[in-house]
Amino acid sequence: MIISSSRYAPPKASAMIESLRGLGYTTATALADIIDNSIAAGANRIDLIFFWDESKSYISILDNGKGMNGVELDKGMRLGEINPLDNRESNDLGRFGLGLKTASFSQCRRLTVASRKNGVVNCLRWDLDFIATTSDDGWYLLEGADEESEHLLSPLDIYDSGSIVLWELLDRIITQDFTKQDFLNLIDTVEQHLAMVFHRLFEDNTKNKLKIFINNNVIHPWDPFLIGHPSKPWSSPEVRFSSINDLVVECHVLPHKDRLTEADFQYAAGPNGWIAQQGFYIYRNKRLLIAGTWLGLGQGRAWIRDEAHRLARIRLDISNTVDIDWKIDIRKSAARPPIHIRPWLTKYAEDTRSKARRVFAHRGRLPVGSKGDPVVPVWKTENSSGTFHYRINLDHPAIKSVLENAGKTLPQINAMFRIIEETIPVQRIWIDTAENKETPSTNFLGEPPKEVIKILEVMYRNLVIRKGVSTDNAKKQLLSCEPFHNYPDLIAALPDHLNED
Q1: HSE on the CB side for 206, CA within 13 Å?
Q2: Residues near 436 by Cβ (< 8 Å), separated by ≥ 6?
Q3: Which of 326, 361, 396 represents a domain boundary (last residue)?
Q4: Three-class secondary structure of residue 384 per DSSP
Q5: How many domains does the chain have?
Q6: What is the tens place of the pLDDT at every residue in 53-106?
Q7: At how many degrees (to 10) do helices 471-479 and 449-461 cross?
């Protein structure tokens, strides 16, 4: 074999590390990556300490996992030591072997890790300032903590085994004009993110379920799907993809704002708000990778996140053996489903989006009767030549009764209906909905019962007195048409006997 000439071309350490610092982590996503390592090490308690002292501020992450010996710590602190193509344990939350380092470098200039295993503590650190000043620009991994920081590793002493990660010189966090209040706000942001990312691990009912604390305050889970909420209109059972193990989808439509208390509405909005939180939630080993994305799916063009579908959220579980197929990136912030899975996901997403759109449009009052029977709508949609129109439903009982009694005025009434159909302020409704982030009030929403009763009584008398329908059948007809299907109690209270006026 003829080997072409070659050159040994190692990257410069300082330049390479500075480049790795720009991968795009936030403090919250970086900390989630560190916590992944703790979970993989079997920890069920993780303590985050945020300590404010201006330029001397620090963040530490302590866990009670199995710890690392000297060889394991050395391997864990090296960049590129683990091949992402290697097989991993089924509970491993990593892939590239870079998360600890790149996540930490994105936030600080000094990373120290100490770990206890079998009674022995080992400690190594990366110091970017030290590397930047070396004459040969080499990859120097330093032994032990900085002498001024050794006391910050003392919390590790409470565990027989475990690890502590220390971030110092937080130059990507403590920037110019950054204040203590900004630091406190950062803590809130991190707490919200971790509550979302690890919520299923927090909700585990076993005695070893995960607990994460920030400055000794436990983080409570944020459930994107409002499991068990009494006003939730719909959710699907788990569905598995037949040819791929551990690929599971579960679809949810959340309650409309009108069906939630203000506290529940704010809670369900999540860290990024209702619009941003819609879509797929991709989990690997119950750890949330990506929250709120339509994965580039859609018919014709990719779906976007919008008001009409804000109530749609879909749980998607994948295994840690398909990261490459799904194009999971280092930060666990992007994914792309394989081609052969996309039609399957699209089918379930379309169904969920359709249901969510109906709940949003009807403000949580779906057009079905009390027993799930279809309801006669006032408006219907007609499609022709690629366009659609809104038409008044002439079979609606209230409209039909007017037409039957119209006599010579029928042409004028039909003309009036046509004018109404052709002048529906669709654009104004669309703009108002976008600006107010809510559909207009309809179906007598917010009106006092007496206003509804006035209309009901007119309809009821017409059916019973003029058409000779029995009172029982008249009530059934009213229950089956829009918008009276929303008022079964008012219909039940209508008198069983009527006198002709």
Answers
A1: 6
A2: none
A3: 361
A4: strand
A5: 3
A6: 999 999 999 999 999 999 999 999 998 765 444 455 555 444 335 679 999 999
A7: 130
